[in-house]
Design a protein that fits this description.
Layout lengths: L1 E12 L2 E12 L3 E5 L6 H8 L7 E6 L2 E2 L7 H5 L2 E4 L11 H11 L5 H14 L15 H13 L5 E5 L7 H16 L4 E4 L3 H7 L2 E6 L2 E6 L1 H6 L4 H10 L1
Parallel strand pairs: 3-8, 3-9, 6-7, 7-8
Antiparallel strand pairs: 1-2, 1-4, 4-5, 9-10
Helix pairs in contact: 3-4, 3-5, 5-6
The structure holds adenosine-5'-diphosphate and magnesium ion.
Pfam families: ABC_tran
GO molecular function, one term: ATP binding
Subcellular location: Cell membrane
């Protein structure tokens, strides 16, 4: 059963086509890695899925519901999706615990004690229990990004969208964030991640999609896409970056 289906997704900015009839299917518990040059449309696709952009054509379906229908309430959809960005976007004036419990309390109307208990458990699971009362500026970049992921998980999402979540980190901090994503996969979380960490995509993804000019040019298991790419554009891209 597909959690996410994108069919013929088209997005233009000022007459420039950025997503050009893009198709993508993500099954339950699957991890899909989006790779491709800067500007190929990875972030725009993730933003479309989270209804941060309106489509110019095509449909997006989440758990069988056509969420790209303009009559759908975006807030209701976003409650089922966790999104994490390159720049962690934690609220600087809120503690770690407050950052994580904000949406569960405000959006999901959970009781404070209940939301805090869940947040502390999630933080403990990623080794951040002792940072619950700290403010973001007291945390390393890797810790902040792990909190941002915990914050997204606190909504118990059906689907996680991760957009270059290690790109802003110092190299020595990348590993702890990747380890967390690895654990999420082991827990069965369905994820779509845009990444330029090819080694990680190879290891963690069930399916790799190579985007070029707003289309999926090649998709398949990582061993196949990285090992025997069939499309000249994929080969060219991989030659340049590996
Ligand atoms: P990627 O994440 O693969 O690097 P993006 O989805 O960010 O690619 O961008 C794809 C193209 O769309 C780029 O050329 C970018 O400049 C353009 N683009 C993205 N967002 C906007 C926007 N809000 N307005 C205009 N152009 C945009
Ligand atoms: Mg991007």
């Amino acid at each position: 059963m597909a959690v996410l289906t994108c069919q013929g997704v088209r997005k233009e900015f000022g007459g420039r086509v950025v997503l050009d009839g893009l198709d993508l299917t993500v099954d339950e518990h699957q991890v899909v890695a989006l790779i491709g040059a800067s500007g190929s449309g990875k972030s725009t696709l993730l933003r479309c899925v989270n209804l941060l952009e309106e489509l110019d054509d095509g449909t997006i379906t989440l758990d069988g519901e056509e969420i790209s229908d303009p009559r759908v309430d975006p807030d209701r959809v976003r409650r089922r999706i966790g999104m994490v960005f390159q720049s962690y976007n934690l609220f600087p004036h809120l503690s770690v615990l407050e950052n994580v419990t904000l949406a569960p309390r405000r959006v999901h109307r959970r009781a404070r004690a209940d939301a805090e208990a869940q947040a502390r458990e999630l933080l403990a699971r990623v080794g951040l229990a002792d940072r619950a009362d700290a403010y973001p500026d007291r945390l390393s970049g890797g810790q902040q990004q792990r909190v941002a992921i915990v914050r997204a998980l606190a909504n118990s999402p059906r689907l996680m969208l991760l957009d270059e979540v290690t790109s802003a980190l110092d190299p020595e901090l990348v590993g702890e964030v990747l380890a967390m994503i690895r654990d999420l996969k082991a827990d069965g979380m369905t994820m779509v991640l845009a990444t330029h960490e090819m080694g990680f995509a190879r290891e963690v993804a069930d399916q790799v999609c190579f985007l070029d000019a707003g289309r999926v040019v090649e998709a398949g298991p990582p061993a196949r896409v990285f090992g025997e790419p069939t499309q000249p554009r994929t080969r060219q891209f991989l030659r340049r970056i590996i």
